[in-house]
Amino acid sequence: MNLKSKVIAVAGLTILFFIGFLASQKIRDSFQEQTSLVEEQLEAPSPQLSIEEIYPYDIPKNKTLFAILTEQDVPGAEIQKIVEAAKPHYNLARIRPGIRYNLEFDESTNPQLNSIGFRFSALESLYVKRIENGWSAEKKTEIVELKTVHFFGVVNASLWESAKIANMDPLLISELSEIFAWQVDFAREVRVGDRWRLSAEQKFVRGQPVGWGSILSAEYQNASESFVAVLFRSEGEDRGYFAPDGSSLKRIFLKSPISFGRITSGFSKKRFHPILHVNRPHLGVDYGAPRGTPVKAVGDGTISFKGYSGGGGNVIKIRHNSMYETAYKHLHGFAKNIRHGVKVKQGQVIGYVGSTGLSTAPHLHFEFFQSGRFVDPVGKKFPSAEPVPQNLMADFLDQAADNIGLLPTWESIEVNLRQMASDQLGTSEAQKSL
Ligand SMILES: [Zn+2]
After folding, report:
1. Cα(194) to centroid of ligand 1, in Å?
2. Could you state, in chain order, the average pLDDT of each consecutive group of 10 residues for the chain (434 residues)?
3. What spacing in Å lies between the alpha carbon of 33 and ligand 1's midpoint?
4. Integer distance in angstroms from the first to the last C-alpha of the chain?
5. Rounded to the nearest whole angstrom, what is the distance from the C-alpha of residue 185 to the centroid of ligand 1?
6. Which partner for 367 in 56, 210, 284, 314 could form a disulfide, CB atoms 3.0-4.6 Å apart?
């Protein structure tokens, strides 16, 4: 997914306000009604024609352009020239199957190919035409219009479900859950009645939606807290999401789960095991420390495991968010109130160094998981949790005010939800009376 894929050109920015769970068809219609005309029209086929009408053919599997054009009686030498002309833009000798194209012949009794056009994507096409002494190729890049659109929802079962009801593209849903990954664990912590709203850029070419830009601002509210994220864009580049005061939404982990101690054995895919006397990967980091040394949670999270686990001895696992989990092994004992499901804060003491399980001397075996896989916590680069730099803060605060202003108000959302509910009631009553 690349929501931040570069925007080729922007012509006119129309701000549209979408309140409510509109059907996707309705959304498209209203977009088209309000689409401002692109100033500089490309000399290209009329937008009324469908893609299939403009480019009637597609490149079949296992067939070269050479074979296709030979079938159309285009001489080999001509095909060579077409490929040569196109080369600065695209290697037609290796054209992918599925790409749509068109052919234009002149109207002589022995029709000659005059031009050939390819549509590589909604944004890019190539037109190769016959000129006096050969062929010339021209790449066409569509003008992309960006519009600000809005989505909101109330959670009934999950964020995904509520976003689906709002007709939101799955790409945007995962983007939203990534933005708030450090604030809310959307797989586990979402409650019925949580609500969210966001504004995002949608890309249009000739009035047709072709994809997404960035989420500009978003808010997630649960019973006790509200989290707001604002995109910071500087010199045309997305610099990440921040809280409205410019602080980072990301959290960093403590460098080490114990205050005093040294690494006695690093992360390694292959290591001689001191007890088992075989080569075995060491998928964690060992900190040598005296028995009883406090062990701290490296980040905020929820205890996902506490108990005795074979070679690991006394083990605690903490889930930090949907991506990161840490494990602490060979513990002598657990801190008070540490049990499955309990929330812990970064730096909170969760247990004490010991030598339980498969261990020769007191040490902490510390493991780090990213998306379920072992990673080396020492070598790993974690997301930056730096705030907006001071010299850019004024610029950020301006953008933050603008972007937050784009969000639909909760009042308007409430009105809409009530309207929706009564519409549904009306429908079901109408159905009943049938
Ligand atoms: Zn170890």
Report:
1. 41
2. 34 28 32 30 52 89 93 93 95 93 90 93 92 93 92 89 88 89 79 93 90 95 91 92 93 84 82 71 90 94 95 96 93 96 94 94 94 86 84 96 94 86 65 46
3. 64
4. 46
5. 29
6. 284
